[in-house]
Write a structure and sequence with these properties.
This protein is an all-alpha fold. Helices cover 79% and strands 0% of the residues. The chain is built from 6 helices and no strands. Helix 5 packs antiparallel against helix 6. The longest helix is centred in the middle third of the chain and has 26 residues. Keywords: Membrane, Transmembrane, Transmembrane helix. It holds the Pfam family DMT_6. It comes from Marivirga aurantiaca. This is DMT family protein.
Length: 122
Amino acid sequence: MKALFTIGLLILSNAFMTLAWYGHLKFHEWKWFNKLGLISIIFISWGLALFEYFFQVPANRIGFKENGGPFSLVQLKVLQEVITLVIFMVFTFIFFRNETFKWNHLVGFCFLVLAVYFIFRK
């Protein structure tokens, strides 16, 4: 149960982080957003990233083995990275339809999945 809860929190945290890091690249389509300067955009992104921490910190505390969770520190980090890439790909497919993924992107993603396999292998 702690494993699923940790993964769920990591998914939420990465959704906010992806929005904070890349959302502003799409928000320019809103007229009011175009009038903002870089500092304003940074503060908006920072505000979104704050929500990322509301989920990331509990995920790591709950999921970490030394706190009674199921994952080692390395496993937590690899999980987080793969979840980040999955969330990023979904975000890109939904909001940036003009971006194209090529065969080498797919191969790289497969290697990351293999990394998860080897990290979790006993």
